[in-house]
Specification:
By secondary structure, the protein is an alpha/beta fold. Helix 9 runs parallel beside helix 13, helix 13 (453-465) crosses helix 14 and helix 19 runs antiparallel to helix 20 (643-664). The protein binds thiamine diphosphate (TPP).
């Protein structure tokens, strides 16, 4: 962009035009880590940016419309997690211009004293700037900025010299100014400045209406361009000299191009946390607990610089990640009482019962070059699913901008999954985030379904090292059978999908049917089904395939992880039926198999939105993905000649299950205690 008339013309012509840039702050805006398109996240991003960034002050301008959104209304409480010693500061500017697109705003119509009380109750000291006359307003705003800056520095200096004592009262600015301020006052006889009509395009008809064009010209002239630019369109030197130099320029702030500031995580060797698996499917362990131990040591390693945080809606213990509390605390700068468990003002485990805050803080944290994980209940990840989408879009657009340096990935761990929310019931059973991420571009979206602890560790290590992705990892927290030793797990995860030959019984001529699984519970049911078939129908030749990287299923043209077709056929054969058990909604697998050899031979069983408060096995029965259903499907699809008795036996077992669970409130022992045996 040259600094002359041609440059100005280019700047103006790209603004909100086809092939140009959006009309709001976006990826293309140098100096931005925040997309202003989907409103609601400005404060939460600002706080994420300043955590563990003691010298950074983020000024966040909150529209009174944006202030009506749930995430923004929740974001004010971020100040209860901000440590004046080790974090930076956020200076919110609540901008009350009275209108959204066409209606009045809630806060815009509130009385000053109510707004004052609201913000004070949230933990802020309110500084008002109000008026209509531009010059005094500029002075007032500058003075207020100076005052707030001094207050922030005083709070920080005191806390850093004397140590943290109590939550500070941080400043906030409330700016009351006109919407469309200094724009056209009246258009076509109707008031515009100070009204909703000023939203975005105050003069809608400049191309067709000469009066509108004239008003536009007058409006632009009101800024006196002749005083601002020389005859070649270059900013006059005395104004250009006002801008700071180098990294102090707003557009060159390295915090807003976080890749520039990345310090690699001090990651321990994940193999040290693996479980010893000498024989597949013989021991049950909580897989996520191993990840908790790995993260405990990541916290130790990231003590200097502090560049790792865990974000979670108060489920760290429940998700079996509690080992992190051996070295780290939950963060709160509020009152702490003796009975509290691992709560401290400098904690870096961020527990707040708001998926929006967890995700938004993490987004701000990674976009400024640090690392983290958002661990949440699977069903409630949908609360912030739209933020996941927006972050993925941000990353996707950033790929086209060579000056944007890649940032650490946004890692989302879904535990407490749909299959094992037996006590909570239907509200807690929803695997929808997989579908959401599946729809995103392969360049930036990844979905992993590790079947056990060792695969989870390998996947997590990969995700923590990666850049510019949204990594979705799905695994349950309950004790579960462990399948693979470390080295096999590493190879399995690197390949994305492998044949588990120990679970199949195929011979040189290949299988009659392939049983495939993606997800921990589907893996259990598939392997158990293979075991039953080996036992009751030994002449049926079965292959078991496990998929850990969901995105290896679509063709490589759709996703970079897509397996080459020859490899895909090696795994799934070219023509044999495939009975596929899937963690999420079954149509998701069908959608990504499009373009593969004979996709119609894939028969997917997955979550069909059948849920309730019930036993773990009843969940797979209700969703027709149980080992008995998979057995019957394999017999049916392979046209197995002597299927009758085994089909009948499976039906009998399903009825027995129904009776047993209702009488005993638990699963049948042969299901509950099932482990792999070779005979
Ligand atoms: C989540 C979301 N919902 C709806 C919109 C559509 N929208 C764009 S601007 C706007 C009004 C914003 O008002 P305010 O925050 O007060 O900003 P102003 O333009 O008045 O400064 C709305 C509703 C949006 N961008 N994001």
């Amino acid at each position: 962009m040259s600094q002359d008339t041609a440059g100005l013309r280019r700047l103006f012509r790209q603004f909100s035009t086809p092939g140009g840039i959006p009309s709001h702050d976006s990826v293309t805006t140098p100096g931005s880590i925040h997309e202003g398109g989907e409103l609601g996240y400005v404060l939460v991003h600002a706080f994420g940016a300043v955590f563990d960034n003691p010298d950074l002050i983020a000024v966040a301008v909150v529209g009174d419309g944006e202030a009506e959104t749930g995430p923004l209304a929740g974001s004010w409480k971020s100040v209860k997690f901000l440590n004046p010693v080790s974090d930076g500061a956020v200076l919110p500017v609540l901008h009350l211009n009275g209108y959204k697109i066409s209606g009045p705003t809630v806060l815009g119509r509130d009385r000053d004293e109510d707004i004052q009380k609201l913000l004070e109750a949230c933990g802020y000291e309110v500084h008002w700037v109000e008026g209509v006359d531009p010059l005094p307003m500029h002075q007032a705003f500058a003075t207020t900025l100076d005052t707030c800056y001094a207050k922030i520095r005083t709070i920080q200096t005191q806390a850093r010299e004397e140590g943290f004592s109590k939550r500070p009262i941080w400043p906030v600015i409330v700016l009351r100014s006109l919407k469309g301020w200094t724009g056209p006052k009246f258009v076509d006889g109707l008031p515009v400045e100070g009204t909703f009509r000023a939203h975005q395009v105050p003069l809608p008809n400049v191309r067709q209406d000469p009066d509108h064009l004239k008003m536009l010209e007058q409006w632009m002239h009101s800024y006196r361009p002749q005083d601002l630019f020389d005859e070649n369109g270059r900013l006059v030197p005395e104004l250009a000299a006002l801008a700071p130099k180098g990294d102090r320029r707003m557009g060159a702030n390295p915090h807003a191009n976080g890749g520039k500031l990345i310090v690699d995580l001090d990651l321990p060797d994940f193999r040290a946390y693996s479980l010893s698996v000498t024989k597949p499917a013989t021991e049950r362990h909580e897989s996520t607990r191993q990840l908790g131990k790995l993260m405990r040591d990541m916290f130790k390693g990231s003590a200097r610089p502090k560049n790792f945080r865990l974000f979670c809606p108060d489920e760290t213990n429940s998700n079996r990640l509690g080992n992190v509390f051996e070295v780290e605390n939950r963060c709160s700068v509020g009152k702490i009482i003796p009975i509290d468990d691992h709560v401290a003002a400098d904690g870096r485990v961020m527990e707040v019962l708001s998926e929006h805050l967890c995700q938004g803080w993490l987004e701000g944290y990674v976009l400024t070059g640090r690392h983290g994980l958002f661990a949440t209940y699977e069903a409630f990840a949908m609360v912030s699913a739209s933020m996941t989408v927006q972050h993925t879009k941000w990353l996707e657009k950033s790929l086209a901008l060579p000056w944007r340096i890649p940032v650490p990935s946004l890692n989302i761990l879904l535990t407490s999954t749909c299959w094992r929310n037996d006590h909570n019931g239907f509200s807690h059973q929803g695997p929808g985030l997989i579908d959401t991420v599946l729809a995103m571009k392969g360049t930036v979206a990844r979905i992993y379904l590790p079947p056990d602890a060792n695969c989870l560790l390998s996947v997590a290590d990969h995700c923590f090292r990666s850049r510019n992705y949204v990594n979705l990892i799905v695994i349950d927290k309950q004790p579960q059978l462990q399948w693979l030793n470390t080295e096999t797990a590493i190879k399995h995860c690197a390949a994305g999908a492998t044949i588990w030959s120990w679970a199949g019984n195929e011979e040189a001529r290949g299988p009659d049917v392939v049983l495939a699984a993606a997800g921990d519970i589907p893996t259990l049911e598939v392997v158990a089904a293979a075991w039953l078939l080996r036992k009751h129908a030994p002449s049926l030749k079965v292959r078991v395939v496990n998929v850990v990287d969901l995105m290896c299923l679509p063709p490589p043209i759709i996703h970079p992880h897509g397996l080459e077709e020859t490899r895909f056929v090696e795994l799934f054969t070219a023509a044999k039926p495939v009975v596929f058990a899937f963690h999420g909604y079954q149509r998701a697998v069908h959608s990504i198999l499009h373009g593969r050899t004979k996709p119609e031979r894939f028969h997917v069983r997955g979550f069909i939105d059948e849920g309730t408060t019930t036993t773990p096995f009843d969940m797979v029965v209700r969703n027709k993905m149980s080992r008995f259903h998979l057995c019957m499907e394999a017999l049916r699809r392979s046209d197995y000649a002597q299927a009758g008795p085994l089909m009948q036996w499976c039906e009998t077992m399903l009825s027995k299950h129904q009776t047993y669970t209702r009488a005993n409130f638990q699963d049948m022992p042969e299901v509950r205690d099932w482990i792999w045996t070779d005979t």
